[in-house]
Amino acid sequence: MTTLNVIFQNKSGLSDKLISIGFVSGSTTAPFAISYPNSNPLDPLDIEILPLNQEVGKGKWYAFEDLKKGVSIRNFSGRIYISYGQTWSVLNTFYEPAQNITDVNFFLRYDKMELTFNGKASDVADLTSIDYWSIPMQLTTLKDDVIIQIDKGIKAGVTSQMIYSNLNNLTSTTQSRLANALPALVPGDFHQNINQPGTGFARIIGPSSYPPIGGVPVIPYPLFNDYLNYLMTNFGTKTTLGHIIPTLGIGKIAYIKGQFNGVGPNVPLSGPQSAQAYDLTATIDDNGNVTLSGRVGTTNTTMVYKKEDLLNPDGIYGANASFSLNGASTQKPANDVYGWITGDLLAGFNIGAIGSQTKMNDVMVGAMFSSQWFTIANDQLFSYLQSNSSYYNQYAATLQQLSDAYNFAYSDRFAPVLVSLNPANVDTLEISFFNVTENN
């Protein structure tokens, strides 16, 4: 049976005794087969790893010292958590911590990476800082002890302290203009209770992890309201066609066009998970609602995104905005052609491509089809496309310069953020974790 050897490297400067590791499956039905060597010489059988959050309680955490010889993965798709100090407890079956002060685990320091390994050529791993940034990591794949690929949570010439400082600066002056918004640094000004005051650094919360507007904590990052107002003013219903960007105006703000390759190794021949082209025009109305209309495959299609759904943290930031399909009740994006189309639109907002007057090969980016945006070099996104920092995802833009980790949900459409675990080329994955010198 094909296996992947995963080894852990503590480069944090913290005692090994403070490091804990846990394994969380991304599905309750997916195969879960991980083991580590038994330290008892009289019992040579490997010990099976158990899922961290399968039962309510302290959680099935493993001491770093017990896993120094690594683990062997036969089947696993999910997240590996690293915890510094006190580990988070499991509040309910299949629980993972929420980035909310009402969560009893809010002030604890932990982070995660993601991988899928089932012995297939398509297996991959990645670093992710979409939800929050806490513990810098690095992934290194090897074959016969030769390095194959490196995914750097901290790019060359960058320190973890630099990432901490730059992310913290984004919300040291809150920009959302919402009442009671506090900096994204945890604990910041939060105090949970006298027994767990939240001293020390836990994480910096990413904009997509906040609850809906009106919840607590209140998002401090700039909302995309200014961006939508810019689009309404310059390309809205009261403007003329092409007066700023060719083909845009009188409500038209973008062209969402491309090819969806379908879902799964056995792509259906029909339906929303089948391979098909899409060609839609994005328009904005006087209330800031965005509508996509055109053809998906051979079908006339309309998708409507309400302004309030775009502005909520899981909307543009989280790339998970609800939409109405052909007049039906609203739905969240799924793993189908409509979810892919939604990804095009929301990625365009995150990087600042929609309404961008920046020229690439003498063509304004705002006039390009959405599939053409994904050919733009990774260092020519965000501020390169928009001079106003409210017109793109500042958190993602900051991380893009400093880390190879996912910085928003569709980072992989613009840059390679996945490392291959193809067993033909890789036999070992090394996960290294580091620290931030300030506020430990």
Q: What would your notes on this structure say?
A:
Strand 7 and strand 8 form a beta hairpin. Helix 1 (160-171) runs antiparallel to helix 6 (394-402). The chain has 440 residues and is α+β, with helices and mostly antiparallel strands. The relative contact order is 0.16. 13% of the residues lie in helices and 27% in strands. Residues 192-198 have low confidence and may be disordered. It has helices at 160-171, 225-235, 307-311, 337-351, 370-373, 394-402; strands spanning 4-10, 19-25, 33-36, 47-48, 62-63, 71-84, 109-117, 124-127, 132-133, 137-143, 146-152, 185-186, 203-205, 252-260, 276-284, 290-296, 299-305, 323-325, 330-331, 359-360, 363-364, 418-420, 428-433. The protein contains six helices and 23 strands. The strands form four sheets. Strands 1, 2, 3, 4, 5, 6, 7, 8, 10, 11, 22 and 23 form a twelve-stranded mixed β-sheet that branches.
